[in-house]
Amino acid sequence: MEESSVFDYIRENRRTIVLSFIAVAVVIFLIGFFAGFGDILRALEGTSPYFLALNFVLEAIILILWTLRWRLILNVVDDAPSFPRLMMLLFTSIFGNNITPGAAGGEPLRAYLLREVEGTPFEIGFASSTADRVFEFIPFALISILSAVLIMTWEISIWTRIVVSVLILVTIAGFSLAVYAGMNKKIAQRIALSVTRRLVSWFSRFREGGISFAGIHEKVIFYINRFNDGFSTAITDRRVFVIGFFISLGMWALDVCRLYVCFLAVGVSPPAVPLIIIYTVGILISLLPILPGSLGLREGILVGLFAVAGIGADYVMAASVVDRIASYIAPTLIGLIAAVYYGKQMTS
Questions:
Q1: According to a count of CB atoms within 10 Å of the terminal CB, is the N or C end of the chain lower?
Q2: Distance (Å, rounded) from C-alpha 75 to C-alpha 82?
Q3: Nearest to 24 by CA among 110, 129, 96, 99
Q4: 77, 187, 179, 97: which is closest to 138 by C-alpha?
Q5: 3-state helix, strand, coil in the chain (%, to 5)
Q6: Which pLDDT score is estimated for 8?
Q7: Is the pLDDT assigned to residue 4 strictly greater than 50?
Q8: What is the rounded CA–CA span in Å between residue 44 and residue 51?
């Protein structure tokens, strides 16, 4: 996908997006049917306005911290725009993430918008948004290791403990390899060239005369080198690393608290250990490139795991609704407005 076409991804793939949301509707209907729509509505009727408001406040703080972290990284590799402007760019990327299966539009969309709105080179913007995700991964790795340890104390089958623990550790290993590849220029070049060669070979089948790989080889090397330089600079800067780490740790802690608040909102107080473990598994499920925002899929996993903790499916689904209103619906709507604004600005 070319840089200039990233913002058009949604329009070009609208059929896939519509079908994926139909799949989401079917999955959520099935979960709601088995949990009992009446029971879910009764649980929602008793939602505490105080905890509902607190849910939004915590989500707002998380988004503010996310913008601060991205701005911190951008100021190392380039000049970051103003905080309000950067936050709107972030909301636009969240919109791209939330409506496309596998979050295909998020990080490239941030880089594309930075280039079009602020004049930041695409590869530098992409390096900053990728480095931003790396900082998010570091505390997640710590929480995942903690969850892998805590799950051994949970009263569940040994096979469930093994499967969840292996899933957590494999994810950590995968992210670690990705970070290493991002910092190692030779490995990054090898991966990028291998992927590009395969894409060129595939697209050549549908184009008369084919496409010359030699013609884009140097361009790929140029962009990878620029990306690697920006990525390495952001990751190896001691000040950025320390501040970014604690910002990320605070974001994860607030997100766990927010999930707890969502249950309190519907009148349930989940035990701490299962909550941390299930939260970690929920994040892992969100990484699967299947449905937009992992809607339905994450809820199904939460229903199954919280059942082991003694919490009924109706209350889990009610808490998920409270969660999604603040973490999915509100940011997506704001991101839609921002996307329309920037779209008009770039075409005018």
A1: C
A2: 11
A3: 99
A4: 179
A5: 85, 0, 15
A6: 62
A7: no
A8: 12
Give the Cα separation of 280 and 277 in Å (integer).
5
pLDDT higher than threshold 80 for residue 2: no
Residue keyed to tokens 């409270």: 322
CA dist., res. 186 & res. 192, Å (int): 10
Residue 345 structure tokens: 């600005």
| Chain-centre distance for alpha carbon 273 | 24
Phi, psi of 326 (to 5 degrees): -85, -40
247 is written with which tokens?
């910002």
User: Which amino acid belongs to residue 55?
Assistant: N
Percentage, residues of the chain above pLDDT 70 = 70
Mention every residue, 6+ apart, whose C-beta is less than 8 A from residue 38: none
What is the token pair recorded at 215?
Answer: 């013609």
Q: What is the pLDDT of residue 6?
A: 42
- 122 has pLDDT over 50: yes
| Rg from Cα positions in the chain | 21
Residue 97 has pLDDT above 50, yes or no: yes
Tell whether the model's pLDDT for residue 188 goes beyond 50. yes
Count of CB atoms situated within 10 Å of the CB of 242: 10
pTM surpassing 0.85? no
The pair of structure tokens assigned to 242 is 């320390």
Look at the chain and count its residues: 348
Helices (H), 100-213: 106-113, 122-150, 158-183, 185-204
CA distance 294 to 324: 11
Q: Would you say 127 and 234 are in contact if contact means Cβ atoms under 8 Å apart? A: yes
Tokens standing for residue 186 = 């030779």
Instruction: Evaluate whether 234 touches 77 at the Cβ level (below 8 Å).
Output: yes
Closest among 278, 188, 179 to 236, alpha carbons compared: 179
Give the C-alpha separation, 60 to 56, whole Å. 6
